[in-house]
Amino acid sequence: MKVLSVTSECAPLVKTGGLADVAGALPAALAPLGIEMRTLLPGYPAVMKAIASGTEVWTGADPVTGTPARLLAAQAAGLDLMVYDAPDHFARDGNIYLGPDGRDWPDNPERYAAFCRVAEGICDGMAGDWRPDLIHCHDWQAALAPYFLDGATPSLLTIHNIAFHGLAPEGKIEAMGLDRADFHREGFEFWGRVSALKAGLLYASKLNTVSETYAAELMRPEFGMGMDGVLRGRAEDLTGILNGIDTAAWDPETDPAITPYKSPKGKAKNKRALQDAMGLPTDAEGPLCVVVSRLTEQKGLDMLADALPALLEGGGQLALLGSGDAHLEHRFHGLAKDRNVAVRIGYDEPLSHRMIAGGDAILVPSRFEPCGLTQLYGLRYGTIPLVALTGGLADTVIPASPAALARKVATGLQFHPVNTDALSLALTRLCDLYAREEIWNQMTRNAMSQPVGWDTSAAAYAAIYKDLVGAA
Ligand code: ADP
Ligand code: GLC
After folding, report:
1. How does pLDDT run across 320-330, given as a tens digit for each residue?
2. In terms of domains, do 226 and 307 share one?
3. By alpha-carbon position, which residue is closest to atom 19 of ligand 1?
4. What pairing do the DSSP bridges indicate for beta strands 193-195 and 167-168?
5. What is the reported pTM?
């Protein structure tokens, strides 16, 4: 079966978040199941550099700008790529979505509409003989592809994050190549504007999101961000499939960024190294907690800043790596004045590995979390996740309830409701559990033996693909 994955980011070539990891891992996870996946990516500078030499399979004019554009077939980082090289849209340095002022590029709607037209074109023979049996689209950036295809090729749309709607002013309808007749409540109109995501939610043959709990949450107004009604209307076509992680890139036994280890005992060296690197004292009695995250409202780190005294009073330490909202960066810089708090603002892949290996616990206090990957890294590295009870965090951590501890199955801690008080209590409890060595060691062993790879979920995607192609 031939599948075109349509995505605006893909690790290791270009990444702003977990979407890239998932798009990067799926092709290899699906190959053993007889699925040949090619990945369509925009020709950003990083992608063009990585493919160096590609084969031109199409040249012509971009549907939005009318300027020269090309479609290239290429291989890089073990991925079979189709790259849409349209310099007017994608030859821009810096963050792929944001201009130098830190705001969305004003022409994002047109950029990704043009990209989606290319996905449609590939289904229609633009790449010669290679035509997909179905397309698998990710988030709003790819969500117009099912609209343009209008059922001609079956499609699956994966929602990684409902917070991003791909909104555009009504005046862009024609520039984006959309049909004004569909600008109404049952179409792609969303409160007076165009929503690329909504078009995908309505037109994709099937929908999924990245955990079962988030799939259920999405249909409720508290989490649906205005799309809950649309999703309730498509409840029969919406499933939750948990993300896996790349267990080769995230393997404590072979990870080149750390001192490798097989059992939780091996973490001690990594903890010491991390404390030294971050300038943290090595005599703290409590757990060293780590955070690796975008600093945004979603991730709930303002609550962590408020709850921090509970951790410090319990003898714990905090090491945070992240970047994002300026006010959160500023807040954590201020907190780092405490000798047991260390903060690195920035994006640093090797350091992220050292943090996950060296931490005793990883904190993920998100207000909502479609899946979340860092708690999965934590499990694999025996770094106990303390998470909010929401979305994929609820589905991947077995909380240390008295019953779970008695049965020796607990892998982490969860707090609920998702607020500062509950987080403070959970941090105090974390410190208590850390002090009970036998229980803590049991939990780290449990964590390390949890399956966090792609096997089960790849099979679930393959089953959807088969349904879609069978039904077409
Ligand atoms: P989201 O996609 O919402 O940001 P995920 O947990 O799914 O959340 O994925 C985040 C990914 O980005 C993980 O691979 C995480 O390790 C990585 N990441 C986030 N912030 C940083 C950072 N500052 N440095 C290195 N990696 C980071
Ligand atoms: C999104 C979500 C995150 C998820 C990732 C990959 O960015 O915020 O929870 O793990 O996509 O699906």
Report:
1. 999 999 999 99
2. no
3. 293
4. antiparallel
5. 0.96
